[in-house]
């Protein structure tokens, strides 16, 4: 990780993005010591220019940000931290420093797609997902059909927990089917976008 801390007198901008939603949460500055502490503790730590010291986000409020990954841009002069926030990020109480809501968890779908792809490419006897791939496309498609019927049945009742459980099962098996077919979810999104643009 080559970072040029000399460009801005020892500081580089650090952008924090929610690892699940993809929403940009805040921007601060890090020096070498702040970056080292961030890596060591797993909690996002900045150099506070107003306090003239290291500042771990959440040290007062308890709303820490747990580090998922750290990347450096192509010029080596800014940092992107993906993190899981433990509560509102902004000192105003807002989810982000731009006063935006950060409630979506749909970014987890991309993580799940990665896991599914890994189970296909690196199968394990202990993996349910790998066992589906091993049984072939017909079995995967059959599972999607079974889960679709089960969600229809649950939709007629009024049990939120059971309905959401079946919805999760259907979504998971649908993603497995896409992977088994060698198609990307983005290709499905392209179809939806094109349909929307025609209206």
From TrEMBL:
It catalyses: 1-(5-phospho-beta-D-ribosyl)-5'-AMP + H2O = 1-(5-phospho-beta-D-ribosyl)-5-[(5-phospho-beta-D-ribosylamino)methylideneamino]imidazole-4-carboxamide; 1-(5-phospho-beta-D-ribosyl)-ATP + H2O = 1-(5-phospho-beta-D-ribosyl)-5'-AMP + diphosphate + H(+). Residues 26-98 form the Phosphoribosyl-AMP cyclohydrolase domain. In the C-terminal section; belongs to the PRA-PH family. Pathway: Amino-acid biosynthesis; L-histidine biosynthesis; L-histidine from 5-phospho-alpha-D-ribose 1-diphosphate: step 2/9; Amino-acid biosynthesis; L-histidine biosynthesis; L-histidine from 5-phospho-alpha-D-ribose 1-diphosphate: step 3/9. It is an enzyme of class 3 (hydrolase). It comes from the Bacteria. Residues 109-199 are annotated as: Phosphoribosyl-ATP pyrophosphohydrolase. The keyword ATP-binding applies. This is Histidine biosynthesis bifunctional protein HisIE. It is found in: Cytoplasm. SUPFAM superfamilies: all-alpha NTP pyrophosphatases, HisI-like. InterPro entries: His_synth_HisIE, HisE, PRib-ATP_PPHydrolase-like, PRib_AMP_CycHydrolase_dom, PRib_AMP_CycHydrolase_sf. HAMAP family: HisE, HisIE. Residues 1-108 are annotated as: Phosphoribosyl-AMP cyclohydrolase. CDD domains: NTP-PPase_HisIE_like (cd11534).
């Amino acid at each position: 990780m080559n970072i040029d801390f000399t460009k801005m007198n020892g500081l580089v901008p650090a952008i924090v993005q929610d690892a699940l939603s993809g929403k940009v949460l805040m921007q601060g500055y890090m020096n070498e010591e702040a970056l080292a502490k961030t890596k060591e503790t797993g909690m996002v730590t900045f150099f506070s220019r107003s306090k003239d010291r290291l500042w771990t986000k959440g040290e007062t409020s308890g709303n820490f940000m747990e580090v998922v990954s750290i990347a450096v841009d192509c010029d080596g002069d800014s940092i992107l931290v993906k993190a899981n926030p433990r509560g509102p990020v902004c000192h105003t109480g807002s989810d982000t420093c731009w006063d935006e809501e950060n409630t979506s968890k749909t970014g987890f779908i991309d993580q799940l797609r990665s896991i599914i792809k890994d189970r296909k490419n690196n199968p394990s006897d202990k993996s349910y997902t790998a066992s589906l791939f091993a049984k072939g496309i017909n079995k995967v498609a059959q599972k999607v059909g079974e889960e679709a019927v089960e969600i229809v049945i649950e939709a007629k009742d009024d049990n939120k927990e059971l309905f959401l459980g079946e919805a999760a099962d259907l979504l998971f098996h649908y993603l497995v089917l896409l992977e088994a077919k060698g198609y990307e979810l983005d290709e499905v999104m392209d179809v939806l976008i094109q349909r929307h643009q025609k209206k």
